[in-house]
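In keeping with the milestone schedule agreed at the kick-off meeting, the structural modelling team has produced records for the first pair of proteins. Each record is given below as a sequence line and a structure-token line. The laboratory manager (R.T.) confirmed that both were archived under the project's standard naming scheme.
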Amino acid sequence: MPQLIDPLKEEYLDLRSGFQNLLSSTLSSFATRVMEKSLREIHLFARIASWVFFGGIGLKDSLTSFLFGANEECKVLPSGACTFGEVACDCSWNDFYQRSGLQPCSVHPNSRALQRLHVEGLREDIDATGDRFNTSFPNVASTPNTTEWYNGIGDMPGPVNGTSISRYRTTLDRVKTFSSLSSVIFPLYNYDQSIGKPLGIYIGFEQDGGFYGYTGCDVGFSAYAFWQSTEANGASALRPELCPLNKYGYDCRCRGWYDEGKQKALANEGFLHISPPYVFAGTTIVAQSVTSPLIDPQSDEHIGQVLIDIIPNAIIKALESHDYYSSELGTGLKPLLITPNGDVLNNDVVVAPGYWLDQDGQSIESIFTDPSFTSVVTDMRVGGSNSTTFIEDGQPVSITYSPVQIDNFRIVNSSDFSRGVSAENTLVFSLAFMDYEGASLAALDDVDDVIDSTVNISIGVISALVAVSTAVALYATVKVAVMLTNPMRQLVKIISDINESKFTSEDVAILSGDYEDSCREVDNVYKTMETLYKVIIFANIAFFSGDLSMAYKVLKDALRVFNKLDNKKAVAVASNNLGNTMLTIYRTMVAEADKNDPFSRPEMMFGLTRQQVIAKGAAYYAHSIKLGEQAYDEFYDEQGWSEECLVFMQLLSNRYFNRAIFFLTTSPSSDDPKEAESLGLRDLEICTDMDIEIVDQCLEMGFKINRVERL
């Protein structure tokens, strides 16, 4: 029965496509908000570090206590056997390594005093200033034990005459300057107690590959001697003069995040770089790096990269948990998350079907190999947004993708504390959802077979019943005509009166009485109309008598019924009333709190928090206004400026006024009070403009309207 199933398949695929679009845009907005946090942190760190290194602020001649010698101590032991014990790990930090069970934690009354920056740098093949731009491998660093690391301040080359003329020219200069950043690094790490807090905060330097920073509970920096240049990590391809194949000893300049961030900055292609996922040195952790350059504004010399390591946990968990797409329409949808650029090995996948971050890096082209996918991924990598299809394993796959973009800031002149920043936009991810059409339609194919079988059986049965049915039908037709005609005429009159706002006492009496000489189906329609009438009356009584809980429940149920009936006018009115109810609930919460304790407000009322009340109220008003604008546009297209059109505009103006009062009243409790107040004032301005327009038009054409079809 293709004529029955094919339209059903088409409608089903249209519904899934709409759900895909909504899901993709919603989660891309969520991912943008998540990544903006890391952006704020890297910008703050990069800006202060630039001021410090390039003279934007003054420095005292002092030195913070560091952790030195971790790799000199650990390089003589087997890999993984060293337990570098000088790192404090407070359970209250909610550190990733402690939370994941990779490091034990303990309770400290004042753990801030135990935090120390670590300094790790190779001292083999250095010149008089500590700079290192080549290697004598394999004479050095052919094994972890043959690497050489700084073991303290006394090992580090400093100014020739003992007086520093630069904050970064020698290794000792860089260490002293970096030590002053402890007042920034530790607060950046400590303030965030969420699962999205940084894994580590560092600076990597161009002159010697030194890597200084803080990693909380992690002691992975003590295993840098065991890091080796391999084909898998691509270090020898990036800097063969520093990290030839098989050389041991971590050098940040040979890592993709450093090289890509540096090249991007020098080519003026962006001040911010977010790497694809990769395995962190000294660990088995797969995560991402956010980096910005340190460039001397006087000489344009690139001296290094600031770095914050992150795992985008909130984004990954949203995709991994299926909470956003576990509905019937979302069953079978597959998430995809890629970075716009691959690493040195072209790996760019964060999330894909059959792939998660605990696996080795992978490129999207190795997962989807059909040529039809090429144009899709090309558009994704430049920040495109689209819904299209491609072929995989001979089957069509529909894909909807959206960009995850964030605004970031380029430092104008870091040597001048008074200078500001310039804004630029960075593409972080491309997020998509895919629907394998063959799998999603399999259930409907089974229905097709069942229908064919059922129809064949039914034909024989129906043929035998045709004669009897004809006689019964004639009798039933007469009976039904009698039972339907009069009640249906009454019902049509009631509905017409409601639509024309002429609901009379006679209509109320009909709805409130008994239905005689009618069939059960028509009786049910009457009872439904009676129930809806009583529901609205009951909701109004509950609201004006102060029973907000009952009014809220009844209006929610009424809205659900109106949605099922697809009565947009009723939905708009109910949504506006629910918005008014949310405003009253909020004011009641505030008033009740002020009675009891002026310094605290109750968090819950009728199962809703204050933030939920604000969010629901804004959503109800927005939906009511949207439907009202649609109805107004349709009416204007049909009649132009008319008396009834002005009434439409007045009703719409009232809804803008209601929402304005809502925003202004709830702004003190909003996440962004200034934004809420701004939205309220904007709605008042819209309302005022519409009222002025209505008055002008009424004066011009006269206001003679007696009735109007309500919104």
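The second protein of the pair:
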Amino acid sequence: MQILNIIDEPEHIPTLAEWHHKEWSYLNPEGSIQKRIEKMQSYLADGLIPSTFIAKATVLLGSAAIVELDMDT
């Protein structure tokens, strides 16, 4: 298994956006897969925060993001 920055393989963003939308859309009902794609694409800029890392073997396994703040409390 490899851990890679999404910057190195941005072609996985649409798949990740779909997975995230299926898992977390109840927290943001106004969201869409396209909005998630756009947000993940913003993580392609230089800098540590925000960042997305992917786990990959022969296929994409999952992801983890480093963000400044993602909770209301």
